[in-house]
Structure formats: C-alpha cells, structure tokens
Amino acid sequence: MTMLRRPWLLAGSFCSQASQRVSLAHIQRLLFSGSTRLSQNSMPSRLADLKGFLRVSEEVTDALATNKPVVALESTIYTHGALGNDLELENVVRSHGGVPAVVGILESTPTVGLLPEEVARLVEGSPRKASRRDIAYLVGMGMAGNKINGGTTIAATMVLARLAGIRVFGTGGLGGVHRGGHESFDISADLTELGRTRMAVISSGCKGFLDIPRTLEYLETQGVFVSAFADGRTGPVDFPAFWERDTDIKSPFTVYDEEQAAAIILAQERLGIESGLLFANPIPEKFAMDSNQIKAAIKQAVEESKEKEGAFGSENTPFILRRIRELTDGKSVLANKVLVRANVERATKVAVALSRLVAGESVPSNKSVKQQTVFQPLENKSIPGGESPRGADITSQADVLVAGSVAVDLNCDYVGEDSLEHPAPHLHTSNPAHTGQSIGGVGRNVALAAQRVMQHSKVRLCSMIGSDLAGSTVLSSLEASGMDTSSIRQLDHENHPSSRTAQYVAVNDANKNLVLGMADMGIFTAHSFPGYWNSTVRASKPKWLVVDGNWADRDIRNWAQAGKQHHAHVAFEPVSKEKSTRLFCSEKSLESLGVFPNPSVDLAAPNQYELAAMHAAAQRYEYFDHPRWWDVIDAFGMRGARDRFVKLTSVSMTDAGIPQQAIRLLPYIPTIITKMGSNGALLTMVLGKDDPRLLEPAYEKFILSRCLNNHPDVGGVYMRLFPAVEQVEDIVSVNGVGDTFLGVLIAGLAQGGKVEKLIDVAQKGATLTLRSPQSVSEDLDMLKTIMPPTKSIDAIEDDDPVLSPGQDESEFSGDEETNSQTRQPKIIDKDSDEEELERFVLGDTANFRENLFRDESQDDYTDRRYDDAANKEENETGTGLEDVDDADLFTFDIGGADRRGDNDLVIAPVTQAQEVTETDIPAWEDTDDERLTISLANATQLRKLRISEAEDTVSGTEYTRRLRQQYLRLNPLPQWAREAQEPPAKRRRRSSATASDSDISDYEVNEEDDGEASALPLDKFLRDASNLNDTKSQRKKRLRPEVIDIQRSRDIPDTHREAVTSLAFHPEYPVLLSSSTSSILHLHHIAPTAHPTPNPLLTSVQVKHVPVRRAEFLYPTGDKIFFAGRRRYIHSWDLATGTIQKTNKIQAHRLEQRTWERFKLSPDGQYLALIASTRKGGGIINILNANTMHWVAAARLDSRGGIADFSWWKNGHGLTMLGKGGQVGEWSMASRRFLAIWNDEGSNGGTVMALGGHNGSVLLGGDRWIAIGSNSGVTNIYDREALILPSSDEELKIRERPEPTRRLMQLTTPVTVLTFSPDGQLLAFASKHKKDALRLAHLPSCTVYRNWPTEQTPLGRISDVAFGRKSDLLAVGNDAGKIRLWEIRS
Questions:
Q1: 225 — alpha (psi -120 to 50), left (phi > 0) or beta?
Q2: pLDDT beyond 70 at 383
C-alpha cells in the first residue's frame, strides 16, 4: 500500500504505556533528523489504476483532495444489522464537522461514499455480507454479468476505505476470538485485517460475548496498536466490552483525547507502519448495561449457540446478538444504538483533529502529561507548517483587508491574418498570438486597485504562494508596487507538496475579449488555516474585508465569520460562474449563511452570468426555503413587480431574470451590484427602516418597493441601472477590469462614501484598466481627487461635497443627515372633527376589522409575545411561530353576525357611495377640500385607503370619498335600504345545446319561490346546515362524450391577492374552500342568485406568515379543515368549535419533515399522509392518524428524484404513489407494504397523478381509473381493472409495464393539475406553465371535449381545479387569484 504524502506537525500529545512516557516531539525530531526519507507515491495515481473497480463519490473525493475530515462507515450495520434505519450516522458525522463515507458494494461495484438513496438500494437488493475474501468474488461476478450487492463488514470496509485514502473509521463493536476459539479457530477476519491494513478504527472494544484476553493477545501478535479512551477515568483503564465500560481487563495503552489519537495516527503513517490502530471508546456511562444482567444473557446465548445447528461461522455472531436482544427485552439494542453513535462522533472528532495536524495547525492536547523538555527553534513556533513568514508586522490596522488569490497571469491575444473578419481564434489548432506575463489574481487586483485610489488609508492582502520561482516573482512584484505582504504565506514543498503558486492563462480574441481562461488555483482549496486567518482579521481591524471565490466553500464561510466577529463589512467577489456558487454551497457541515439584518456578506459584485449561477446554487441548496428569507422577501412587497423592473432596468434584462435574481438573493447579500459590461451596472440594495433615502424626492424614482408590513428592519428596496460612463473602443486588455471596479468601490466605501455615488467612479476605474496592459491600471491615482471625503462623486464631473459636515462614516451606506421635512409634500393638519371621523370609521389599532381588511403583509410585528417567541424558537424550527398562541396567528371574519360588543367579525359587500344628484351641494361638503393634501402613506391607519402601494397623497375631496367608502364597508346599508335602492330582478335561465363562455347562466328561480339565499354566519351555518342543502333533484346525470353542455356561472366575488393554491368543495354543503400564498383562507357559499353578492363569503381566515399552499376538508363530514404552507408545521381548524390545533413535528421523524405543504387526507377521515422532505431511499411518505396526529407508518418508494405525487384509494385502505422516475407503487395500510410496483408507460418525469371513478377492483381500493401526468405534457389514463393479472393464488399480481387505455396529448407543458369529478365521468387536466391550458376528458370513453374551453374562455394560468360534490360545478383558480365557476349540465 502506498503512503499518503501529507505535511505533519506534531503537538505535545502523548500516550501512556504503563509507567513509560514517550515524547512525541522527540519522535518528530528522530523521524525527520535522518538523511533518508520514506519513498511515497501519490494516492491519485493509485486511484487512477483502480478506475472501474472502485468508485469514490464526488463529495468524498473533494474532501480528501482538500484535507477535509472524512470518516468511513460500514454498510452491514444497515444491511444486516438489527438497529433500524434511524441511526442517522451520516448526520452525526456532518454535525461534528466531518464528511461521511458509507462503504459498500453496489451492483458489484465497490463504492466509498454511498448516497442515502444508494444505501436504500443496497438494503433492498438482497445484499450479501461481504468481508475481505468476498470482495473479488462480488466484483468478478459483476464483470461476468451477474451484479450483486454486498454490505461490507469491518474488514472489507477497512480495505476499501484504505484504497480511497481514508484514515479514520467509526463502527460499533469489533469482531474477535470467540470463546473456545483456541479449539474451533473461530477468529474474526477483523483482527487479521487490522494486522495488515493501516486504518484507525474507533469502536467500543470488541463484542462482549467474545474472549477478550485472547482477542487482545491476537491483536498484539498482529502488531496492532490497541488503546482505550480514558473518557474521564484516570490511571490505567479497562478495555471496554461493547455494552460494558469496565471488564477488569486493562487496556494496553490509554489516550486522553482526540488530539492525542490524531497524533498517533499521523505518526504511524509517517513511519510507514502498515498495521492498523484500534481505539476503544467506552459506552457512555449512563447507557451502560448492568454487568450481572448482560453477563447472564451472554452466557445463556453462547451456550445455546453451541447446541443449535447452523449457528457456526458467519451465522454465530448474528445468532448470539439476536438471543441477547431477546433475553434483555431489547435493552441491548438501545445500548447498541447509543454506543454506535458515540463511536462515530468520537471518530469524527479524531478525523477533525487529524485534518488540522495535516494542515499544519498546532492542535494542543487537553491532557497534561509529563514530557521531556525538547528545544524548538523560535521560528518554527511563529508560523506552523514550515511556511516562511512574510513580515513581522501583522498587528497594524488596515482599512481594507483583501483575502484572495495572487497569481501569475499569462495573456494570449489572437493576431491572426483574418482577425478583422474573424476575431476569434481557431479551435483545434495553433494560433498566432501576442503573449504577455504579469502578476494578477483577483485578490491582488482588488487590493492594488483599492490602494491606488485611497489617499491615506491602508490596504492589506492576505494570500498564499508556493516556494517556487513563480512565488518569488509574485513577492518581488507586490513589494515593488508598495503593497503590504505581511499576510502573504509562502508554503514550502516539503510540508505542503501541492503548494504550487497559482497561475492563470487568458486566451483573448483580436478585440481583447476573453475567449477562454484556465486557472490553476489549487493552492487555495487544498490548504486551510482558519485560525491564522481569524488572527489576521483580528489584528488588522479592517472596515471592509473582501473575500474572493477562489477559496474552498468552507473557507469562504470561515473568512466571512471572522470578518463579522471583528465588526468588518464583508464583500464577496464571485471570480467566475463556477466559483461564484461556493458562497451558496451545501450547508450540511457549515454555519448557516446570515440573513438581513445580520447577513454574513454585505456586498457582492457579480456579472450577470455569475449572478445567475449564484441564484441557481441558492435554489438548488434550498436557501430560498429558509423562514428568515421569507420574512425579508415578504417585507419587500414584490407582488406584480414586472412593470417596475422594466421601468427601472429594461425589457431584455427583465426577461433574462436579472433583477428578479438579484431580489431573491438580496436577503443574504443586502447590496448587489451586477456588472453588465457595456450596459453599465445594476445596483440593488435593501434600505433600512429609517434610511433617509426613503423620504428624499431625488431617490423616489429608484425606490422599487417599500415595506408595508411593519418589518422591524426593512424599509424598502433600491434599484438603479447606472449606464456605462463611456464606450471604450481602444481596448488593450480585459483582464482585471471587474477586479478594478470592486477595488475602487471598496476604497470609496472604506472612506465613508455612498455606494450609489461610487458606482460611476468604479466604472471610470474599470475603463482605465481596459486601456492598460496591466491587470490594474497605473493611472488609477487620478481618481484620488474625486474620492471621498475631498470631492464629490455624485458624478465624475461634479465638484459638490460628497459628505455633509459631521456625517458618520462608520456605515458603508453613508446615511447622511438630511432635512427630509423640507422635501415632503405640504400636509395640512387635521381638525378635531376630521380626527373624530377617522376614529369612528377606522377604529383603533386593536380593532379586528382593521386587521381583516388591511394588506396581508401588514402583520402586527410589534406584538411582544410574537417577538419573544420568534427569537426563542428561530434556530430550532426556522419560523419562530411554533409557540405563539393561535389567537395571535389568525384573523377571522364571519359574515352576517350580530354587531354587538367586541366580537363583531363581520365582512360585508362593499357598497359604492351613492352619487349626489341634487343640484344643491350637501352641507357636509367643503369647497376647500380640493385644495387640501392628505398623506395616506405616513399614517398607519390610512394606508388601507390607498389603491396601490406607490400611492401617497390625495386631495381632500378624494380623501373624504374614500373615508365614506370605508365606512360603508364596515357598516353596510340595512336590508330595507338595500331593497329600496336595488330590488332584485328575476332572471330566466338560458339553455343551450352547446357551451357559451360569453353568457352567464344562473340557477333557475321558481315563480312561487320568492326566498333568496344570503350569506349565513359560520356558527349558524354549522348549527342550521339544512338551509344550505340543495333541494334540487338528486338524479344522477349522464354526460355524453365529445360535446359538453357547460355554462359559465357567477364568479367568486373575492379575489385572492396571490395565486390560488388549492380549491375544495365541502362534502355535504354547497361551500367552497380556497387558499392562496397570501396567507388567506376563504369559505364561500355557492349561491349564484344570492343578493346583493352572488356566492357570498361565509368567513375568512388570515394566517400570519404562513403562505398556505394546501387546504382540505376532513372527510366524510367536513367538520375540520387542515391547511399548511412551506413551514415546519400544519394546522387543523375545527369548524364547529372554532379551535385551531397546530402540529409542529412528527415524533422521531422530524428531520424528514421540513415542510408540511404536500399532504392529503384519506377519504375515510382516518389518516393524513404527506411527502417527506428527505429523498432517502428514493422518497418517503409519512402517514399520521388524522385525529391524534401521531405517526402510524412510512411508505418508501425507490424512485430516482423522490416522490412526485400520491393519491388515497377511495376506501382509504391504501394509497398509490408516483415516483419522478415513473414508478407507481400500490401501498396497503393493512399490510403496511407495497402490494405491487409498476411503471408508467413512456414516462418522461412524473409530475402529478389522480384516482377516480367507481366499481374498480376492491383489491386496489375501488377506484376505476388512474391518470398520470408527465413533464412532457402527456397524460396517461389506465383502467385499474386491466392492471391486474389473473392469478390462482391469493397474491395480487400487476403488469409491470401496462399499456395505457388512452394517452391525452393536448397539453405541451408539464401537467400540474389532475382532478376526477366525484361521479367519475370527467377528468380535468391542466398546466400552470401556459395560459388557458385546461382540458376536460369524458369517461369511460377517454375522449377530450372539443367544444370547451374555447379561445374566449377566461381561464388564465391554471393553479387548481375542483369539481362540486355532485359533479355539477367546476371551479377553476388561476395565478391572478381569481376563482371562476362553470355549471355542468346533463
């Protein structure tokens, strides 16, 4: 086995063997004092030889290449263990800073770093138990065409992990010499493997039923280092025996902490000793089993194993473990789980300490051990790892600290003969060029640009170079340019073999535009010194810290964290599309990225391509699902912002999504400057609550939106497109242009400038570099005259002072004192009569009706109970709303209730103010009102009178009209007045053989029936539900195919402010439930003839901070409503009592459920099923008891990409699941397993599914039809009776690849809605991705109706569809928040 060549620094860490003490520092001196060195080969070349025989995951490969702590995990604990699937060992590793590497043989391919779904495939694929002897057999059988799965034992895991280059392995208990092994020779292969494979194994000793003394003797013979962690004990400690901490058998060695263990592992590696190391970790004391009980159980189990036939060899250990579990009533299983997790945690800490040693950081031991005094030179203590210090003075302060790359740049400019006609170089051949070499690197360029434009401030660059010719050239160049090199670390090749100075090659076309860039920046990702960096930031005390994207993702977070800890503003330079994504990487083992007002990064300057890459990465790793992100986004009030985007930028930029992407990233990066090349730069930033720019008229046209929900920190969003200061024709080089832009900008900010007034200066600096052969122009010093605080930078040619006298320069936003009052519109104070009228009409802030009619974003953030609860729970659940009283989260409205007391929750139709037709002016009208100016935006109670968010001042006459209108909303005209003004007109029902969307039909009104429907209060509605029952005939309608008789009915009068997310009809009464992401639920009585408002509102509910994405009635009675959004909880609303219950988590399954929005209730009302957030094993559906909300079962479908959708069977005894890969599973609640799994024909990515119809197979729930939609727009309809194969036995057999009854190909975009009518005669299928994309299909003919919808049918983009309980109504919701109804006639 080849050795890993790694740097090594041994701290004062020691192990004890009896009374003998050995100094590791002495070992270090002896090891490296000789003239000879160990010949070592590189691991990458070894892995290249194994290509095709060993697969190492991308994550593990990257971790090993960048010296991240990696912990190997065996797979037999999953395939052959009895501990269940909830160990979550990978999460244990990640939570302690490591990278897990599950080892197994998947389809005859040895794999290091199995993904969760691959582990599930391994478990479900009848795996064999694989030790060292079995590896070649399993691989060879795969080469012969018979692919087999194998769960690797400790021995096999050691072999494969060692081949991959992993050093540390965490497991449960080691195998050993069985009792009587001196006669039977029953010795575990784990022991011999430790004797020949160098791997640090952390386990709880060996299993307690083995012969421990003979096991230790055998390990000594094999040359295996054996020690035990002291774990709080002193002196010689006992060697643990799995369930027992103490065994009266002393451990050969003792280690006191992980740092000592790491030093021993590295010493073993450097010395070239190929045997393994065993570190025994005792079970946590409070979980250790009673010694007498476990010994008695072991004795009985061992005796039974000798008497039982077949309990020999590899079957012996499983038999004994199973009997011990039975004899201890399962207590041994709990202890086993605890010790396995404790061992993996200890292994991770050892791997972390080892990673630090390899990186050259001193990791002192926590245990003080007597040691020999060893002299160490002072220079070796100053900077560990053997690198040379670049300067002694790193304690002086710097205004700007740049942490980034420095590199040797090589520019190649194409100069071919045809360069005028074809400026781009030719591919696949040599091209003539002019080449030039210079010193560059993003970090260096930014630092140099900042230094050249700053007058009296200091700039420092923190970077790394190698001990090579390029490194020496870089140092000389930096010193010659006058830059501070005290924080440049030069790494030597002896201790850092991969420390090669960074280099960059740019291939440009004839116009000097970049065609291709090649960067060798491995030195920045392969070496990490977070402790040193933190001390550099602490000593420098910078105002601004600039971090570029050349660092590894973990190190970018370390830099940002260090900057924030020492009160510096942090700027991020993305560098390139690929590297820009490192800021928004997977956060499994990293600290979360901060969100405004406490962001980790304050400013970023990407180009449009880097912005798109950052946005895609943030979306891929679910940064946009964070509750705190939602809080800030909701405060922006960005609904319907396209027109504003176009106005502030351009149509092309808006269509490209540039402003939208910047807005979505804004909560994480409050200031984003998107570099648009010749189109200028787009500035997008968050303005604070008290930012004076919100009030200044000069800034008004750049205010994209204002906060309307009283967010404590967000005031609005500023967006401004700065055109290019000039179009440069004589371009010399494009290298360093973006870096110069950022360097000049940061220099201005560090001197107190305002970002919006620095962008033109930064663009001027960029144009100077465009005309320069250097990556940073030497002429930048001319900009000093216009940098703050001496000259104005409002525009390049302006000479006004940039800062007002006495301005505080500590904030980069430059919030200068302004006399905003003088710039406000003149507002005349209200007199006492007007104020009294306002109080009478609008009420106080506690008035409930105000909360109902105000915008949903205007939630009461000032409620102390909510603030306290949010701060307390934010880290745990991510929303901060779990402990808030439900009364504080919901706003109810019940129409028609008595208007007495404080319980007035009435909503009524808005009646327009009557026009005054008299010739005489009423006494209450004042002719001076027209000259008054009233501000609606500055007074909280008046904001609801605005028509749009941007509206502010209105005239006195308009103000009076709106007050009157608001009064009539709250106090509608009495019944007698309405009858006098608008007597209801009787209308006759129209009939037509064909559909007509232009006409509106009403339900027939009989001459003898003069009663009229009205909106009933909710409590009365529940007590006297018979009034809502439809008295029409219950005769079942039969629909004909091809042509449907459908008439448009009255629309739902209330429009949601955002897209409708779900529609549901009550199972017994004509009531429609609708929800939207605007946090609103509506209940409407479906009565098209009701006066004065058809289909009146029964009640509304506003759920604070919950964008409701699904709401359902609980069948069969409909007395409850369940609803949820993209949150970690779900609510159930009892309509009879009005109580609301909240469920925060599923016990023991909390990590699987990060959102509850994808739930469905069973038709029998017993169960609630929801798709889990995790994709472990393909996809999981958790099933809960709908009454108690306790977990009942989990169904897992092995499908690539997870579960797309599912539906309950008609009888509620099972459900059908659709995987995104096209797999369909029929899962039974009775047996808690899949009855069958089949595949959707020609599936191109399943999206949605639905069950419907009657008289289907009882074995599959009674549904006749199943419809499956796909990404291609095709909907397949299957007859479920035809799925079942004839069988003589009782087992259900289904065709694996059935042919669909009909393929519906009318849609061209992904199908997002599938709904069967309750009578099973209609199927509605739709797509939200295209306008008016809705069709109806007739069943059982499976034909699509050709006469509806027509081109004039007002559908919009369909978001949900629902059929009435009698299949006579069709409700369609769209993305505009509107709900339209159609009457289906027989």
A1: beta
A2: no
- Select from 1058, 1108, 1041, 1051 the least CA-distant residue to 1081: 1108
DSSP string, 362-414: ----SS----------HHHHHSGGGPBP--S---S--SEEEE---EEEEEEEE
State percent of the chain over pLDDT 70: 74
- Type of residue numbered 531: G
| pLDDT exceeds 50 at position 280 | yes
Q: What is the DSSP string of 970-999?
A: HSPPPHHHHHHH-PPPP-PPP--SS-EEEE
Whether 74 is catalytic is yes
Radius of gyration of the chain (CA): 36
Q: What is the pTM of this model?
A: 0.40
Q: What is the token pair recorded at 253?
A: 């060695």
Edge-first strand listing for the sheet containing 1379-1385? 996-1000, 1045-1048, 1379-1385, 1369-1374, 1358-1363
Q: Say what the pLDDT of residue 661 is.
A: 93
Bridge-based pairing of strands 70-73 and 99-106 is: parallel
- 522 forms beta bridges with none
The reply to whether 207 belongs to the active site is: yes
pLDDT of 871 higher than 70: no
Q: How many CB atoms lie within 10 A of CB 712?
A: 12
| pLDDT of res. 82 | 58
Pure H helices in 454-490? 469-480
Q: Dump pLDDT digits (tens) for 1139-1183.
A: 788 888 776 666 667 788 999 999 999 999 999 876 555 688 999
Q: Catalytic one among 68, 117, 118, 207? A: 207
DSSP state letters, 553-615? HHHHHHHHHHHHHTT-EEEEE--SHHHHGGGG---TTSPPPP-TTS-S--EE--BHHHHHHHH
Tell me the C-alpha to C-alpha distance, in Å, between residue 708 and each of 696, 701, 717, 1075, 1377: 18, 18, 12, 22, 20
> Which strand (E) or helix (H) includes residue 654?
helix 651-655
Distance (Å, whole) CA 378 – CA 1099: 78
Q: With beta carbons less than 8 A apart as the criterion, state whether 259 and 351 touch.
A: no
Rounded CA gap, 573 and 688, in Å?
24
Which residue(s) pair with 487 in the sheet? none
Phi, psi of 400 (to 5 degrees): -130, 125
Lowest mean pLDDT among 37-41, 937-941, 1045-1049: 37-41
Strands 400-403 and 544-548: parallel
For residue 1303, which of 1242, 1251, 1249 has the smallest C-alpha distance?
A: 1242
pLDDT at 798: 39
Does residue 1158 contact residue 1170 with C-beta atoms inside 8 Å?
A: yes
More confident residue, 136 or 533: 136
Q: Which of 68, 74, 756, 1176 is catalytic?
A: 74
- 418 CB burial (10 A radius; 0-12, 13-18, 19+): exposed
Instruction: Decide: residue 356, CB within 10 A, 0-12 exposed, 13-18 middle, 19+ buried.
Output: buried
| Higher local confidence (pLDDT), 1281 or 512 | 1281
The SS3 of residue 439 is strand
